[in-house]
Amino acid sequence: MTVGEKIKYFRTLHGFTQDQLIQATGLSISTLQKYESDERKPKPEQLLKISQALGISINVFMDFDIHTVSDLLSLIFKMNEQLDLNFTSQKDSNGNILPDTLTLSFGNPVINQKLSTYVAFLNKMADSEKEQYTQALQELENHLLDDSTDIQKTAPIKEASAPASDSAFSDPSYQKIQNLLSDCTSQEMEWILKSVQLIKECMRNTHE
Predict the structure, then answer these.
(1) Residue pLDDT, tens place only, 64-104
(2) Residue 198 half-sphere exposure toward CB, CA atoms < 13 A
(3) How far apart are CA 127 and CA 165, in angstroms?
(4) Residue 173 has pLDDT above 70, yes or no
(5) What pLDDT, on a 0 to 100 scale, did the predictor assign at position 191?
(6) Contact predicate 95/88, CB 8 Å
(7) Are 113 and 124 in contact (CB under 8 A)?
(8) CA gap 199, 78 in Å, rounded
């Protein structure tokens, strides 16, 4: 999809008319129409206004062309800096990492849930016709991109805090929580986390 097509898609998805979007962004109607028809390319500051009004990331409108090793590694290094990115691999008898066994994964359940949906789609549509596959894939990607859940790297545990014991993770209550959260949507996860934070603060204030 072009930038203009994406603006129109997400505007429609979020129930905005063109008049409503120009009121929220300060753009003129003619400017927005030219953006959506790809007669004119919006500047970064205009894209930022549009993305903020629609509640989506400005990165949705950006192209990340990967042509070189540097292009790819710069994205991975940035993810490792800002996200809970995990690297796992197998080693040979000399302790050297076997490159073909290297895998990347995320410690954030919201990301994992999104990627699971994406991979499940790829497996399901593998034998579909190219045109049908491309259209369905674009719709899924746009649906998954329409999410402003905060996924920044979690803060490190303070040294004064006692480390969680292995027995804590085998506790039946912990297992029940895991099962409860396993099929939550990203929006549900966000609500649950906010609720838990509020409950924890209330409990601690009560005991002070």
Answers:
(1) 788 999 999 998 999 999 988 899 999 999 999 999 999 98
(2) 6
(3) 47
(4) no
(5) 72
(6) no
(7) no
(8) 33
Whether this prediction's pTM lies above 0.70 is answered by no
So what's the pLDDT on residue 206? 63
Residue 161 has pLDDT above 50, yes or no: no
Burial 90-113 (b: 16+ CB within 10 A, else e): eeeeeeeeeeeeeeeebebbbbeb
Q: How far apart are CA 2 and CA 8, in angstroms?
A: 10
3-state secondary structure the chain: CCHHHHHHHHHHHCCCCHHHHHHHHCCCHHHHHHHHCCCCCCCHHHHHHHHHHHCCCHHHHCCCCCCCHHHHHHHHHHHHHHCCEEEECCECCCCCECHHHCEEEECCHHHHHHHHHHHHHHHHCCCCCHHHHHHHHHHHHHHHHCCCCCCCCCCCCCCCCCCCCHHHHHCHHHHHHHHHHCCCCHHHHHHHHHHHHHHHHHHHHHHC
CA geometry: angle 100, 102, 105, nearest 5 deg: 145
